[in-house]
Write a structure and sequence with these properties.
Rossmann fold, 3 domains, globular
């Protein structure tokens, strides 16, 4: 059943809120911004047709405050809510509340989020549907003793992972049996504190893997397509720093198999809307399901650049009840795109957040350069939220040219007032291993000297 969206509320902040507002304007949909008191002067507040304060700077009282966000939607007459990424984007209770209030959620159904959000259950489901998974525990680990037994079967090293984890939290690498009990407890307690659920499972640690993910779209008519893959192996603290599409140095056979596995994974949960299936790929091109992100990804622009598909618009159209705008045969990847996360971080101090006032901001431009940001000179990078300043995305006809374009754009990018990740991205692009296209998730630890 189709339902036209006339007024959409964005339950987020920062660059993603701006990105969604722009897509809505091009679809002739009115927008409502919500903001904390600390964000009253933010760009998304200025660009929206209406803006409503939903609480103080604490996320628990504003951007995670379901009651206030729903009230803002009802007061403003919004008939749909886009959650962006983070915050409430994968919160099943939020989706259920919106359904009861007859407010459309721009995203998948609650059942899909629920099934893929429990990572231990997701592993079982993927295995059942023929999607390769990393060897490990079949269920949640109930005791240290059971965990050690499973780890012995897998063979050390193993990864302890929280079923509700994400963003690098609730994960610990265990090299030796004598360290297992302590690290298992640390991972469990971290997950309990961060997600309210300390349940953990175990996976065999894949040595020096590549992190490759598949972008998918599904509609309400059973159609599911992929939009190719992205390489997200450049990470710090288990969090992505640079992403590119398509993934360099993988065979056509692997690309075809991993993308089909992504489609199969989505179909296994009757998935509707945009989502991403993340895989680990070993040196022999074996790949293993890691998790599904049931939302729009931070790095979605690189896929947009190489396919020409506006993923945010597609999300909205799917929610309105339209069929996918594209068949699988119509999706063609052309050229190469790289995204650089420009964060306000002290790289030499473990990438610690570096909030403060942007004294000077000069953004790069020119052909094949895209900037997704909410920042201008004089703005504050607030200590309460994510440290992202901007996403710089470059595009060219092949990877070598995209790297050169990235080097040029990074040289043009000037930020004064706070430390940023611009310099570390310049080091990455100058690195021969990166240029070769064959690198793993250990790249930042083994290839980049941060204190030079």
């Amino acid at each position: 059943m189709s339902r036209k969206i006339n007024r959409l509320l964005i339950a987020n902040r920062g660059e993603i809120a701006v990105r969604i507002i722009r897509a809505c304007k091009e679809l002739d949909i009115e927008t409502v911004a919500v903001y904390s008191s600390a964000d009253k002067d933010s760009l998304h507040v200025k660009l929206a047709d209406e803006a409503i304060c939903i609480g103080p700077h604490q996320v628990s009282e504003s951007y995670l405050n379901v009651q206030n966000i729903v009230a803002a939607a009802e007061i403003s007459g919004a008939d749909a809510i886009h959650p962006g990424y983070g915050f409430l984007s994968e919160n099943v209770d939020f989706v259920d509340v919106l359904k009861s209030c007859k407010i459309l959620f721009i995203g998948p159904e609650a059942d899909s989020i629920r099934r893929m959000g429990d990572k231990a259950e997701a592993r079982k489901l993927m295995k059942k549907n023929g999607v390769p998974t990393v060897p490990g525990s079949k269920d949640i680990i109930q005791s240290i003793k059971e965990g050690i037994e499973v780890a012995r079967e897998c063979g050390f090293p193993v990864m302890v992972k929280a079923t509700a984890g994400g963003g690098g939290k609730g994960m610990r690498l265990v090299h030796k049996e004598e360290d297992f009990a302590e690290l298992f407890e640390v991972a469990s307690q971290e997950a309990l504190a961060g997600f309210g659920n300390g349940d953990c499972y175990i996976e065999k640690f894949v040595i020096d893997p590549r992190h490759i993910e598949v972008q998918i779209l599904g509609d309400n008519f059973g159609n599911v397509i992929h939009l190719g893959e992205r390489n997200c192996s450049i990470q710090r603290r288990h969090q992505k720093l640079l992403e590119e599409a398509p993934s360099p140095q993988i065979s056509d056979d692997l690309r075809e198999r991993i993308c089909q596995a992504g489609v199969n994974a989505a179909k296994a949960v009757n998935y509707k809307n945009a989502g991403t299936i993340e895989f680990l790929v070993d040196k022999d091109e074996n790949f293993y399901f890691m998790e599904m992100n049931t939302r729009l990804q931070v790095e979605h622009p690189v896929t947009e650049m190489v396919t020409g598909v506006d993923l945010v618009k597609e999300q909205i159209l799917i929610t309105e009840g339209h069929k996918l705008s594209y068949t699988q045969d119509q999706i063609k990847s052309k050229g190469h795109a790289i995204e650089f996360r420009i964060n306000a971080e002290d790289v030499k101090n473990g990438f610690s957040p570096c909030p403060g006032k942007i004294e000077t901001l000069r953004l790069p431009g020119g052909p094949g350069v895209r900037i997704d940001t909410m920042i201008s000179s004089g703005d504050e990078i607030l200590p309460f939220y994510d440290s992202m300043i901007a996403k710089l995305i470059v595009y060219d006809e092949d990877r070598d040219k995209a790297i050169l374009r990235g080097q040029r754009a990074l040289q043009e990018f000037v930020i004064d007032g706070v430390s940023s990740t611009i310099e570390v991205h310049q080091k990455i692009l100058a690195n021969d291993t990166f240029k070769s296209g064959y690198f793993s998730t250990s790249f930042m630890d083994t290839e980049i000297k941060l204190n030079d």
